[in-house]
Amino acid sequence: xxxxxxxxxxxxxxxxxxxxxxxxxxxxxxxxxxxxxxxxxxxxxxxxxxxxxxxxxxxxxxxxxxxxxxxxxxxxxxxxxxxxxxxxxxxxxxxxxxxxxxxxxxxxxxxxxxxxxxxxxxxxxxxxxxxxxxxxxxxxxxxxxxxxxxxxxxxxxxxxxxxxxxxxxxxxxxxxxxxxxxxxxxxxxxxxxxxxxxxxxxxxxxxxxxxxxxxxxxxxxxxxxxxxxxxxxxxxxxxxxxxxxxxxxxxxxxxxxxxxxxxxx
Length: 265
What we know:
Layout: E1 2-3, E2 10-14, E3 17-20, H1 21-41, H2 53-76, H3 78-83, H4 98-116, H5 120-127, H6 131-145, E4 159-160, H7 172-191, H8 200-216, H9 236-262
Parallel strand pairs: 1-4
Antiparallel strand pairs: 2-3
Enzyme class: transferase
GO molecular function: phosphatidylglycerol-prolipoprotein diacylglyceryl transferase activity
Protein name: Phosphatidylglycerol--prolipoprotein diacylglyceryl transferase
């Protein structure tokens, strides 16, 4: 049995100004995504310029923050915010949804593609391998905050979290860091190293994240105000992940079919 490190969630305090670790993880995620994006843009035949990456990530940041917050409101705690609508703007109190953030980024990429006259899927294909960096950083932020822990377990690496009682639990934040961050990044980075049909990289991202999130949800404790939504074991995270996998598989199939049809015979 292990004890989760008790780290002060405030990383830096200058008078009344507090900088939380979770916020720093967002900055690290965006900085890492920018650096990798510049590297991808410099590849021969990428069709991108390095100076376009910062503009792209500005759209991503808006999509993540607005979509993530509204997704949490709609998917996870709609009743509360319906009674207290002003609290929707209180993002400093916590409450962000990945699936909502994904929708926000999709909309942001559509707007970016229109402004730059690019194919929407070409934009999402360029972005997809960069996203796991931010996902991984965010899960480290969850771990530092000792939130989103897993079910009680007797595995040797089970951890005791300060607000979860005295029994060891699955450190699901670290599972998601390893899967959604490290593993998904490696898969997408290697897959995108060669030219792929438009939409295939985006489809693989949807499949990879959806599968990894669905699996981790089996040992992750759902939000207390929602609990299990079906059969005593299905979570909201799993319900939201299934369409991701289906859409991702359909997108990859469509992408390869389009390339096959356009190839000279």
